[in-house]
Amino acid sequence: MRRFGVSLMNLGLCLLLLASLNPQPAAAQDGGAGWSKITPGPTSFMGRELKPSCSGYPATDPTFSFYAREGSERNLVIYFQGGGCCWNSITCVTDPTYDPYIGAEDDPANFPIGIGDFDNPENPFANWSFLFIPYCTGDLHWGSGEWTYRYAAGENWTIHHRGLDNFLAALKWARANFPRPRKILVTGSSAGAYGAIGNFPWVRRAFPLSRIYVLGDAGTEVGPREFDAQAQLLWNIHRPYWASGSIEPMYLPDFWVTQARRHPGVRFAEFTTAWDSVLTWFRWAILQSFFVATEEPDVCQDFHTNLLRTLQYKQGAGNYRSYLASGTDHTILISPRFYTENSAGVSFLSWLRAMIEGTEGWENVQCSDDCGELPGCFLDH
Hints:
By secondary structure, the protein is an alpha/beta fold. Helix content is about 30%, strand content about 20%. The protein has a single domain (about 10-365), classed as Alpha/Beta hydrolase fold, catalytic domain (Rossmann fold, 3-Layer(aba) Sandwich). Helix 3 packs across helix 4 (about 190-205), helix 7 packs parallel to helix 9 and helix 8 crosses helix 9 (about 300-315).
């Protein structure tokens, strides 16, 4: 997925935030194109003890670092990188379906395209500050623990699912260095889209006075309930009661709707293509792992049917919108298509501007006819 009047409650919240701002030692170095690379050590924030780390996959560097770029406007983009996910010993260790470490190719200075093209006058975020959260934990930026996987007879390996720890360490730094942004776009592509919606409540609590927008790029629900339960166990997903009103793992579409209804002043949105080939593959692979049959005989049609159903459900929240484009492409934010997408008869860029600027034209958008369906599904099952 990668590369491709103050109440006592509010007073308590303010004290919590102030207590969380004690900077911890962190190594920082200048990067290209105005980016700085920050390597946090163990720290605490929002009442949690954090151990930032990449997966620790064999023969890889477990060091986690994030990137920041200061803009000229008092606005902030929090971007979660994509890169697959894993849910058993095969996908986590034997044949990983995620990116288990951070390499030079993950430096955002190396892909100045789409939302990262700061020289493009059409980019509405060119002058915003950026917090870029790399992804290397296989847990959709949700985990806060480790799990030991047995991948061969007598052979085990412990994977660090520390996506939440990594994000909160970066959020703590951002709270101290970008203290009063007027607007915040919480977004991410692929696995990062799940990170955006899953971690939005922490951003809301860290920046209670900012106007916040949430945009998921190619991260719609693909797994059955069995997947949610297993991910909760393996990744040690931590969503506090104040974030969702539930102590149980919440089905992803329900979490979108719950957040939208609990935060009516926040705009929530998603982009995806109607036949996203990467999400189709992950849906197929996850269903196979849990011995769950597809709803449709054709795997691609199965993904499409599930997509339309979940989008329609989420559209029931008055402050949620979706943009469904034609074709099979995966993600748009870090792509030239960010500036050219118009397959639904409405420019994606104008739709996104309407979302952020509060102008007319921010409605649900959907491609027509077959939405670019291929003559045959690319998955032969």
